[in-house]
Amino acid sequence: MGFNCGIVGLPNVGKSTLFNAITQTAAAEAMNYPFCTLEPNVGRVEVPDPRLAQLAKIASSKKTVATQIEIVDIAGLVKGASKGEGLGNQFLGHIRSTDAILHVVRCFENGDVTHVSGNIDPLRDVDIVETELMLADLESLKKREAGICKKNNADLAAEKAFLGKTIDWLENGRMLNQLILNDEDKVFSEAMHLITRKPVLYVCNVSEDELISGNIFTKKMESFAKNRNSALVIASAAIEAEIAIIRDESERKLYLQSMGLSESGLARIIHGGYGLLNLITFFTAGPLEAHAWTTKKNSRAPAAAGVIHTDFERGFICAETISYNDYVAYNGESGAKAAGKMRLEGKEYQVNDGDILHFRFNV
User: Fold this and answer.
1) Kind and range of the H or E element at 73?
2) CA angle 275-130-273, nearest 5°?
3) What distance in Å separates the CA atoms of residue 39 and residue 360, rounded to the nearest whole number?
4) Contact predicate 216/117, CB 8 Å
């Protein structure tokens, strides 16, 4: 699987509509009142990558297997959620184990869709949600601090320092993903599954006619995200809902072109997520199937092999490697090999995006 992410945001910002659209389901009920999402919805969606179809065509693969992302949609958070207000507090635990957060922000005016705060102000909305996430983390950190401070153990000194540093940071109203941690601190952070430590992709939900040009709200969010060194995507949940019901791929492309778009909001969100998490895609291709796999950027070949099966990593010998461009240019494995474009790479090889790999192993 590519990665998993949790969708957060205030009620009525378009979270559930966007979730339904990008997962092409009706799992998340979308209605015009707060807290219509009562249970966390989980969906998986294939990562769109035109290279996979091209590889399958060249290799005469019987089927293709795309990598997937998992999306968790939780109830809208409101002010006081960390203390039990609304329903969001019940589901914060569901995003603690995710890789990243998709923060959906309402950036459209529509009198027919109520806003819990009465008017549109994306920066205020972000502050409300992130404050609740920070308070939730602060509670977890203080509980841990209270527990270990009772112990007079020199081995806990590093963790005590970590707790003091992170608590101070949060109490000053700053997300932990803005705090530089050393390697030891990162271990403590990961063990606690801190929400505000996760990278955030801000998704500005706009009306259909403002998707290309944006508006004053998206401009504010762009400046905000830039100052945070965070990623931002502008999407229209309404357009994504229309795209989702078009099953034919060629018709989808024509629809996108008619809207002046080269790709869907889903594709932009996925690309943003991959960039945020430093992920790349490599492939395996043969007559049975062409398969897309996800690994971290700069991963060594054995680690990439382990994505497929732990035995591949444990018994790794080498990787037969062809770049995507060479695979296409020389019409597949045989042609690339004849042209000297297939390489045998060892344990220190860093996998590149688009590599077609065949692992040799022995266990």
Assistant:
1) strand 68-73
2) 15
3) 45
4) no
Task: Answer positive or negative: Cα dihedral of 103, 93, 44, 99.
Answer: positive
Block residue for tokens 């932009």: 268
Q: Report d(CA 73, CA 39) in Å as an integer.
A: 9
Coil/strand/helix, residue 312: helix
Q: Are 24 and 240 in contact (CB under 8 A)?
A: no
Q: What is the DSSP letter of 40?
A: -
Task: Write the burial class of residue 290 (CB in 10 Å: 0-12 exposed, 13-18 middle, 19+ buried).
Answer: buried
Residue 290 · residue 283 · CB < 8 Å: yes
How many Å apart are CA 77 and CA 34, to the nearest integer?
Answer: 10
Cα separation, 147 vs 88, in Å, equals 26
- Backbone dihedral angles phi then psi of residue 17, each to the nearest 5 degrees: -65, -45
CA distance 323 to 343: 9
Question: What's the angle, vertex CA 357, arms to CA 304 and CA 343, rounded to 5?
Answer: 115
pLDDT tens by residue, 217-235? 999 999 999 999 899 999 9
Pick from 24, 28, 26, 25: nearest CA to 11:
28
From the centroid of its chain, how far is CA 116? 26
Is residue 80 over pLDDT 70?
no
Instruction: Report the distance separating Cα 77 and Cα 125, nearest Å.
Output: 10
HSE-CB of 2 using CA atoms within 13 angstroms:
32
Tokens of 329: 């240019």
Q: Could you give phi then psi for residue 75, rounded to 5 degrees?
A: -60, 150
Pairing status of strand 200-205 against strand 231-235 = parallel
Q: Identify the CA nearest to 88 among candidates 77, 79, 98.
A: 77
- Name 46's bridge partners: 68
Cβ(305)–Cβ(359) below 8 Å: yes
**Is the pTM of the predicted complex or chain greater than 0.70?**
yes
Those residues whose C-beta lies under 8 Å from the C-beta of residue 313, and which sit 6 or more positions away, are: 302, 303, 305, 306
Element (H, E) at 96: none
**Measuring CA to CA, which residue among 137, 135, 193, 189 is closest to residue 159?**
189
Whether the predicted pLDDT of 118 surpasses 80 = no
